[in-house]
Specification:
Largest sheet: 5 strands, antiparallel
Order of helices and strands: EEEEEHEEH
Number of strands: 7
Strand content: 35-45%
CATH topology: SH3 type barrels
Radius of gyration: 18 Å
CATH architecture: Roll
Number of helices: 2
Structural class: mainly beta
Amino acid sequence: MENEIEINGAAYVLKSSIKAPATPALKKKGMEYAIVRTHSAGVIAGYIVSEKGQEVEIAEARRLWFWSGAASLSQLAMEGVKHPDKCKFPVAVAKLRVKQAIEILPCTEVARKSIEGVSVWSA
């Protein structure tokens, strides 16, 4: 294996070659930052306030209208966007309640910072 050395029969790997695991986003007042895909309201990112069945309340909710540099919502939740200048994320609203959530993807801290760092898009 590349970046590996054996000493006295034990294999050692160069620390800088090890990919760090994704860390979950910081919780804000006990709320998890996540991406919520809905049946007909699109995709929203924000802090999950509550969840009951398919109804989800989201604080600091930001609709993800168009993103660039992530192939899927899964990649977006793990890595964020690669081209923030090409994304269309309107202004966040204080609270939003969606009635038909299909999936909730918890975000890493890297993804949260990336999403929140995209400039507000407006018409």
